[in-house]
Amino acid sequence: MAGLTLTEIIMAQQSGRDSVRPGELVWADVNSIMTMDYLGKSTFNIFDSLGAKDLFDRDKVICVSDHLVPPPTEAFANLLNEWREIVKAHNVTHFYDFGKQGIAHQIMVEDGHVLPGTISIGTDSHANSYGAVGAVGNAVSVTDAAVAMATGKGWFRVPETVKFHITGKWQPWVMGKDLSLHIMNMMHWNGDLIYKALEYDGPAMSDLSMGGRISLCNMTVDLGAKNGIVAPDDKTQAYLNGVAKGDWEMMSSDSNAEYEAEYEIDISNVGPVVAKPDNLDDVVTVDEVVGTKLNQIFIGTCTNGRVEDFGIAAAILEGKQVHPDINMLMVPASQTQYLEAMEKGYVSTLVKAGVAIGTSGCAPCFGTHRGVAGDGDVVLSAGNRNMKGRMGSKSAEIYLTSPAVCAASALTGRIADPRDLPMPKNFGVTYGE
Amino acid sequence: MANNLKGTVWKAEGYVFAYDIIKQEFWTSALDKEENSKWVMGGVHPDFDQENGFKSNGYSFIVAGHNFAGGGKSIEHVITGLMGAGIKAVIAESFSRLQFRNAINYGLPFITCKGIEAIASTGDELEVDPISGQIKNLSTGKEIQAAPVAPFVAEVAEAGGLISYIQNVIKEGKVDELR
To answer: Which CATH superfamily is domain B5-148 in?
Structure first.
């Protein structure tokens, strides 16, 4: 009998089955459910209509203020107040409100609400990030989240699994984001990965930091996939040590698991890449766009707003100045990431270089907060989406890339290849170790 | 869920995005089958971009290719709009994950069928059994086997959607039996 992939093993275990087949629909236990400020009220309203006496587990419904904080308009402020009221009325244990806030996906992972070998869901598309610690992480509708809040369960279609086996050695300055965009270029957002589970393994995955794994799994939703997953290893264990909200065990795909397709990528051959404006899969190597004039640079979001992203930017900008034509904004993905970046000295290095630091949260990624793009702006962003109007004006152009390319480009005001820079003395970022 | 659906088909020429099924100006409308159906499919074809432009054709089925209703929009108006316009099932090579979930949650059969595009044309009469996956083209006599719809999907449709299905499950104290 053929073995199971990690995603299939998790779906089988969590639905009380010995085995599952791709295409099958199962009801499975959900370990944690995330909802956040702008959809949370609808989620709780549907929950209230279901007739459940209480949440299935008040420790497992995680509420986060991220899209609306700090409220830039009266309308947002009012929404936020309604959200706080409904969260408090439901007596949840973990409410990450303003002051303790961050992007929900970052908080779910960094604060141990996602456990390897379980299923966690959230009412925002980038809930796929949870796969970085070896869980099945899924974006769901408010109805699905409300049902899980009442029952502790959700229905799931067991996906076919596609494997990406990553070999070779990471070049300096190449990050998880580059691999993510490289795969986008190979597979396309509307290609053969629709509704699939994407499993990443191989020696170069062992070398990739937890932050890099989050970037990689985060953007699997933008490939149309159901989830992205990296089997837990020693790095996962170290990362979750002391924060995991529950026990978990190491697990991986069966050695005779059946994959729908398998691809091998030698990471030694992948350099920094850039997605050109409007289409996520219009990805080119950085040298094809070197010299493109910019006026805004943004590093942040659930894709690239972590300590290592601040670290790599600080390594490049230390003792230097952001080009006068550039507005450069960096926004930590959470207060925890902010504090650590500050304690490591990255924040002061960046501020001295002329970088503005925003309040932890989703910030201008989806075009409503401080730092939006105006008419004709040319933005280089370490975020996850570049469609017209995503960050504000429909006539703004958004290039997507890694924090390393963003920081290197800040020096000249034009897209630059970080590999052309001298290796900084303080180069201690652990993304490739 | 009815097991012998009959009616005429509209076949998509090319890829159908969720945000062409419901154009952006309607994304924040209230969820209402009747209201959402008036402008449904408005972005798919110029003929449909008028009030009841799609609905007035009286189609019962949509046949489509890869990743039907994709593009990353989770808006449920896609499903309520199609249901309000009289669509009884969508048969496609594959579906976007978000809209596949919404369809099941509302009880609209989304039937996965490799090869469906080759055996159906706009205006053909189809007979579709979602439970067995049998699809007959009554206009041409051709038949094809689709993936049968899971029993759970039929149960949700019978209940009138996931919310009422779960209300019943909770009322009857049967949460532990959900598997």
So the answer is: Aconitase, domain 4 (3.20.19.10)
